[in-house]
Specification:
- By secondary structure, this protein is of the alpha/beta class.
- Helix content is about 35%, strand content about 20%.
- The protein has nine helices and nine strands.
- Strands 1, 2, 3, 4, 5, 6, 7, 8 and 9 form a nine-stranded mixed beta sheet that branches.
- Strand 1 and strand 2 form a beta hairpin.
């Protein structure tokens, strides 16, 4: 945001690049045309490694936020971290066509995988990105080997009223100050990476597309790792875990203590990456 309160694209790019500098040095980028615009992807890991596609959350989240997982996961996997279409980041939406339905999002992801040369992948997402990942796995189970859901929203339980109340000012009229105040409330005043926080502030006012909404997903037979933020103010972790157990016959659920929804994925607690690696490297799913 500049002094007048308008979105400052140059400031956002600088903040984005500063967070991306925390990624492994051997990082590449790819741009993939899709029916809804050009998708930007950050790539690292061995070219012959099994693919792992990671989707960020909504709001001001970008693929840059996965830096805390990138180094560990890229030792065994070819990691593709995606900037969502119509959200902050370096993907460029088509002005005349945007995703409006769950089917549109699934078509976008199918086209993206085709463009990356990926037939079947492990798929992960945080928050809204986890919601997209779960819906895509339901629609295209032949393209997803394993699913990682990091404190997913609107998948197993709704938003808490307190969360919606505190989020409203930064949704109606986002400013850096309102974004910071909201994140400080949700994370319980936890010390956050200043570069990551600066990126969230720089994303305030980004002309984002309205996120797609839809019904909560139904059951899925694929292997699923569900990592819930123990201090999440977004929803009730216990209710989410119970509902997931009823819907997903092959789910493994772990509650990450001492961390909130918006501190993820960049501020994962010690041991969380071990959960991810163990799940993704398990023979036969």
């Amino acid at each position: 945001m500049n002094a007048r309160g308008a979105y400052d694209a140059d400031n956002f790019r600088m903040a984005y690049d500063k967070v991306m500098s925390k990624w492994p040095a051997a990082r590449e980028t790819a741009t993939v045309p899709t029916p809804f615009g050009t998708t930007h992807v950050n790539v690292c890991g061995p070219a012959d490694g099994p693919p792992l596609v990671l989707l960020p959350g909504g709001g001001g989240a970008t693929s840059a936020s996965w830096y805390a997982q990138a180094a560990a996961l890229s030792r065994t996997h070819r990691v593709f971290a995606v900037d969502l279409i119509g959200a902050p980041g370096r993907s460029v939406p088509d002005r005349d066509r945007r995703p409006r339905t769950v089917a549109d999002l699934s078509a976008w992801l199918d086209t993206l995988l085709d463009g990356l040369g990926v037939t079947e992948t492990d798929l992960g997402g945080h928050s809204y990105g986890a919601w997209i990942a779960l819906h895509h796995a339901l629609r295209a189970p032949d393209r997803v080997r394993r699913l990682v859901l990091l404190d997913p929203t609107q998948c197993f339980t709704g938003f808490s009223p307190a969360y919606l109340m505190h989020a409203l000012p930064s949704l109606l009229r986002p400013t850096p100050r309102r974004v910071r105040a909201f994140l400080e409330w949700e994370t319980g005043g936890r010390t956050l990476d200043p570069d990551w926080l600066a990126l969230q502030e720089a994303a305030a006012g980004f002309p984002a597309l309205r996120p797609v909404t839809g019904p909560r997903p139904r059951g899925l037979s694929l292997p699923v790792l569900l990592l819930l933020a123990g201090n999440s103010r977004t929803h009730n972790p216990s209710k989410a875990a119970a509902r997931a157990a009823a819907l997903l016959p092959r789910v493994v659920t772990t509650v990450l203590e001492g961390v909130s929804h918006h501190a993820l994925p960049h501020a994962v607690p010690p041991g969380a990456n071990r959960h991810l690696s163990d799940f993704l490297e398990r023979p036969g799913g």
